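Section 3.1 - Work completed
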Amino acid sequence: DRGPGAHIIMDTLCDYHNFDIQWGNHDILWMGAASGNDACIANVIRMCMRYANLATLEDGYGINLLPLATFAMDVYGDDPCSIFVPKMNFADSEYNEKTLRLITQMHKAITIIQLKLEAEIISRRPDFEMENRKLLHLIDFKRGVFVYEGKEYPLRDTN
């Protein structure tokens, strides 16, 4: 999810008779996404936006990002989304400034979607004991602060 070609590696491994894999948290996340879990899907897309790795989603898995791009442009068209700029080496980037701006907007949009989807799961499954991970309702958008355990923290992004 952080670099191009993950799908190529998986296709190559499928040609081997056997091999050992050490699964990590990102692998489990991708399996959850492949199983259709909406929160996992949003998280996978968010990670790809964070590292400007659209090729894995579009070319490797045939995922159409146009609906997310359209939504992001509509909602965040006038928003600089500066804290959502992809983490990458811009000198080596194949993306022009306009495309990077769109990826930045998509990154912000999918981040909010992911947080909302995770909050739904937490509400639906109190047995997970993850109420402390629901944080969106603690944001005071009018004042631009996040209030946690009685302390206020200024938001880095108020759009």
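Second construct:
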Amino acid sequence: IRAMEKVEFSVCHDYVLTPTARYCDVVFPATTYLERDDVVFPAGNYLFYSHQVVMPQHQARHDYDILAELADRLGFGAAFTEGRSAGQWLEQVLAASEIPDVAEFKRTGIYLGREQKRFALADFVADPVAHPLSTPSGRIEIASAAYAARTGWPAIPVCREMDPEPGYTLRLVTPHPRHRTHSQYDHLPWFREREPHALWIYPGDAAARGIADGARARVRSPQGELSVPVRVTEEIMPGVVSLLEGVWPDVGADGVDQAGSPNWLTSTAPTEPSLGARTHSVWVEAVAEPL
């Protein structure tokens, strides 16, 4: 938030008023995938064609059209668009692709890439000498001296318990919700009503801290602090608390998140050796919310 406040002028184009959009000076309403034709790139070696099913609603516009008009008003519209609309650019990309029958692709909505049998490190597997890895030995290293030197952990990875942070006695886990994809759809009241967001805490841990079921608690870590309703349950281990990931933060002037987003508690420092997010490696403390 402090970083956003330092930006002299910020602009966002989105079809949902996200937490980031709320801090922007100008928000352009963009069309959703239902309001325009587009090509979707999944994780695998295939493509989806997404057909427009409704006209753009209200003042929503295609992202390309928003940027094209901004470019035009700034004096370089022709250089930006090269005289093509969003649909014409899409057709040009498809015409230049490996897709042999664009009409069939649009009809079926899916195109399977020519090569479907891909696997990692194929060149190395075929010829380790000609295609060595970037490790010191050029091979897969079960014991890595470089990893040990960089992290201080053993050369052969082992499970090591985290040392508790002084003043923090609860281990935070942040599982995926079943009603949204990460943060997508958190703005929908229907989902929030069906499964209200809450901090799960074991009865003994709650009693020791004077926290009642259904009340609100303050949860803090070295990174931040939040306020969240509580669910006291035996479905979680003693010493562990749980907050579903993906919640949109709602931060007050005091810096406390009132929505219960675990991002306010987790560290941005990556894990080792995967350099992943610290989703289950944060120590926190919880207290009853002052009345």
